[in-house]
Design goal:
- The chain has about 240 residues and is an alpha+beta fold.
- It has a single domain, classed as GHMP Kinase, N-terminal domain (Ribosomal Protein S5, domain 2), CATH 3.30.230.70.
- About 30% of the residues lie in helices and about 30% in strands.
- It has 6 helices and 9 strands, in the order E-E-E-E-H-H-H-E-H-E-E-H-E-E-H.
- The longest helix is centred in the C-terminal third of the chain and has 26 residues.
- It is an enzyme of class 2 (transferase).
- Belongs to the RNase PH family.
- Its EC number is 2.7.7.56.
- GO terms for molecular function: 3'-5'-RNA exonuclease activity; tRNA binding; tRNA nucleotidyltransferase activity.
Length: about 240
């Protein structure tokens, strides 16, 4: 039934390659099927003004798509002079999600910026960015700990995200672009490694969906998150 031939509860192939850039404190290239995202984490010994002298650290994110990440070329947002509403929404989601897995007191007054650059898009770019962003963040914090700059691990749990939807009347896991563009319902689940919800985005693109359908998508998401967390663990050792 699915265009890819996958089962309803089957994820795309997941590959996470670490240490892909020389200068960033943490980096990875995450491939979720045809969606490829470069994630880098940059450590700075400063915090935004509203956190100065608070003893709390900060994790934030930026997101962007390369011009030929999609079927047709997009103009660079820098050339347009402003970021789109979609870009702003996604990078705020990434930042909120990653902060949910951090003890900001243990991090101390320093900021980590996670940059997520989509090289190739085939659906689920925000989910791949969150999942890969966590890996880059983990690697950057590992360096802090190795240097003795933090006394306890600020990472509370894994953070990962996956999409689910209603496609051709059936709940499916990890939508690619073909499914996403034709789905009756589209949702994104951000969860911790322990299974707690961080954020849920769900919208009816066609007809409204039922509580039973939502519960089916939720169950699929739990299965997908477990697969993603296993891939994160394998990537960071």
């Amino acid at each position: 039934m699915r265009p890819s031939g996958r089962n309803l509860d089957e994820m795309r192939d997941i590959v996470i390659e670490t240490g892909v850039t020389r200068h960033a404190e943490g980096s990875c290239l995450i491939r979720c099927g045809g969606t490829h995202v470069l994630c880098t984490a940059t450590l700075e010994e400063r915090v935004p003004p509203f956190l100065k002298n608070s003893g709390l650290g900060w994790v934030t994110a930026e997101y962007g798509m390369l011009p030929r990440a999609t079927h047709t070329r997009m103009r660079r947002e820098a050339a347009l002079g402003k970021q789109s509403g979609r870009t702003l929404e996604i990078q705020r989601l990434i930042g909120r999600s990653l902060r949910a897995g951090i003890d900001r007191s243990a991090l101390g007054e320093r900021q980590i910026t996670v940059d997520c650059d989509v090289i190739q898009a085939d659906g689920g770019t925000r989910c791949a960015s969150i999942t890969g962003g966590w890996v880059a963040l983990r690697l950057a914090i590992n360096k802090l700990m190795k240097a003795g700059d933090v006394t306890s691990d600020p990472m509370l749990d894994h953070i990962a995200a996956v999409s689910c939807g209603i496609y051709a009347g059936q709940p499916v896991l990890d939508l690619d672009y073909v499914e996403d563009s034709d789905a009756g319902t589209d949702s994104n689940f951000v969860m911790t490694g322990g299974g707690a919800l961080v954020e849920v985005q769900a919208s009816a693109e066609g007809s409204a969906f039922s509580r039973a359908q939502f519960d089916e998508m939720y169950a699929l998401a739990e299965r997908g998150i477990a697969t993603l967390v296993a891939a994160q663990k394998a990537a960071v050792g």
